[in-house]
């Protein structure tokens, strides 16, 4: 299992849920959420480049609800 898949399985929901409104954490939470989105985009892109569109589409569909 590659590191992007492990990260995606471990990380659920926005960073610092419930305390992200603390001014000292707000920018770090935004940075971590952006990083997480980048990992997801990379996983989807790799799946497509490897000729696995079904798996990439499933990853995008399953993970997209978590980003909201």
Written overview of the protein:
With 68 residues, the chain is mostly helical. It has a domain at 23-52. The chain has helices at 3-10, 23-49, 53-67. The longest helix has 27 residues, at 23-49. The chain is elongated, with a radius of gyration of 13 Å. The model has no long low-confidence stretch (mean pLDDT 76).
Give the count of helical stretches.
3
- Uncertain segments: none
Secondary-structure element sequence? HHH
Q: Roughly what is the average pLDDT, rounded to an integer?
A: 76
Structural class: mainly alpha
Query: Which percent range fits the helix content?
Result: over 70%
Largest beta-sheet details: none
> In what range is the share of β-strand residues?
under 5%
Alpha carbon gap, first and last residue: 26 Å
What is the gyration radius calculated from CA atoms?
Answer: 13 Å
Keywords: Two-component regulatory system
Organism: Streptomyces finlayi
GO biological process, one term: phosphorelay signal transduction system
Domain Bacterial transcriptional activator: 9-59
Name a few traits of the molecule:
68 residues; mainly alpha; 0% strand
């Amino acid at each position: 299992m590659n590191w992007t898949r492990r990260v995606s399985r471990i990380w659920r929901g926005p960073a610092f849920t419930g305390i992200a409104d603390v001014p000292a954490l707000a920018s770090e939470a935004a940075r971590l959420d952006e990083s997480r989105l980048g990992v997801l985009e990379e996983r989807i892109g790799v799946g497509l480049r490897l000729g696995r569109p079904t798996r990439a589409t499933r990853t995008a569909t399953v993970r997209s609800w978590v980003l909201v």
